[in-house]
Specification:
350 residues; alpha+beta; Immunoglobulin-like; four-stranded antiparallel sheet; 8 helices
Length: 350
């Protein structure tokens, strides 16, 4: 089957804007529904998956409406068809698009009809840019392993918006590297680095071979986990709003991951705010007249919570700057091994 290779993934670098003060840790008010909402358990208990390397993937993604033939078997070594994989991707990733008018899959393919199983799901995947329209789709044809990987990457880009990066350490070429389509090689090795693809025991990819059901649910399982990891982010935002004649400067750090994140501060100063005019000249620095302890400090934000730092410019001081200040830039003073901190700060317009 597939053989494990190096996986080096870095979460997307997020840019927003920041304000700081003593943190107020609160439940994250911005947390929305999960990006992916797959059925945690497939609705079929198969008799031929126990103790196999794909057991968990088949339990979670071997959907009965796609794979069950009534025999109680998953038939893991059977080739997965192009339509079966399209339906699998659609359901596992929760891709559901609403249209204002009835749609016709015939607009995209000449060998699929609206009443065919998977037609509406296929239409959604075309709309999402995961599958390219035109000519024949070949719904009953076996999906090649190369095609399976390329579709998984298209789905990854759709679910993440392409907002992720990887440290592209070129992995060892497959023993049958020459059989991979030249146009697909860079994407195939990108998938290797991301951990979506691994090789057979002899480290061959067998790109033109038909993908099996076991391979398909395994790749989809990895894809779902990867998307969840890449979309569970720490987001930083800043705002500067006039309140009671003064200016409230605020930084919000939202921990949307499943674990606590920590910021290490080299001193008691945890944040800073600066105001700039329209030409980028610094008009005011919040920390300029402040004293901070030199002791090491830290800020920990639990999973699903937010840290809010804020500072207020009273009306007297803000009055001297109002009309001149065009933007505020907020800074996290410290470092973190858990998320990216932009050293240039986070800007908000006033």
């Amino acid at each position: 089957m597939f053989k494990t290779l190096l996986k080096t993934i870095a979460a997307a670098v997020l840019a927003a804007a920041i304000p700081l003060g003593q943190p107020l840790i609160a439940p994250n008010p911005y947390a929305g529904p999960p990006v992916i909402a797959p059925n945690p358990n497939a609705d079929a208990a198969y008799t031929d998956i126990a103790g196999t390397w794909f057991e968990e993937a088949a339990e979670n993604y071997g959907y009965a409406d796609i794979f069950s033939d009534g025999s109680g078997k998953f038939n893991p070594d059977s080739a997965i068809s192009r339509m079966e994989f399209a339906r699998l991707l659609h359901r596992a990733l929760g891709i559901n698009i609403n249209y204002f008018a009835p749609v016709d899959i015939g607009e995209y393919f000449d060998d699929v009809k609206n009443e065919d199983a998977g037609a509406s799901q296929l239409y959604d995947l075309v709309t999402a840019g995961i599958i390219q329209p035109g000519g024949s789709f070949g719904p009953d044809k076996a999906l090649s392993r190369e095609e399976m990987v390329l579709l998984a990457l298209k789905a990854l880009d759709y679910k993440t918006g392409g907002e992720y990066f990887i440290i592209m350490i070129m992995p060892e070429p497959f023993t049958d590297d020459a059989e991979i389509s030249e146009s697909a090689k860079s994407d195939i090795y990108k998938a290797v680095v991301l951990g979506l693809v691994k090789g057979h025991e002899d480290y061959s990819l067998r790109p033109k071979a038909a993908a099996t059901r076991a391979e398909a649910v395994t790749v989809v399982s990895r894809l779902v986990n990867l998307i969840e990891n890449l979309t569970q982010k720490v987001e930083v935002s800043a705002s500067a709003t006039e309140e009671d004649g003064g200016l409230m400067m605020r930084l919000v750090i939202e921990n949307r991951t499943k674990k606590a994140v920590t910021i290490q501060h080299m001193s008691g100063q945890k944040f800073d705010f600066k105001l700039f005019d329209s030409e980028g000249n610094n008009l005011y620095t919040w920390s300029a007249d402040k004293l901070f302890t030199m002791a090491l400090t830290s800020t920990t934000i639990e999973a699903g919570e937010s840290a809010v730092f804020e500072a207020f410019l009273d009306g007297e001081l803000y009055g001297t700057l109002k009309g001149k200040a065009a933007s505020m830039r907020a800074y996290i003073v410290g470092s973190s091994d858990d998320f990216y901190i932009n050293p240039e700060g986070y800007e908000a317009l006033i």
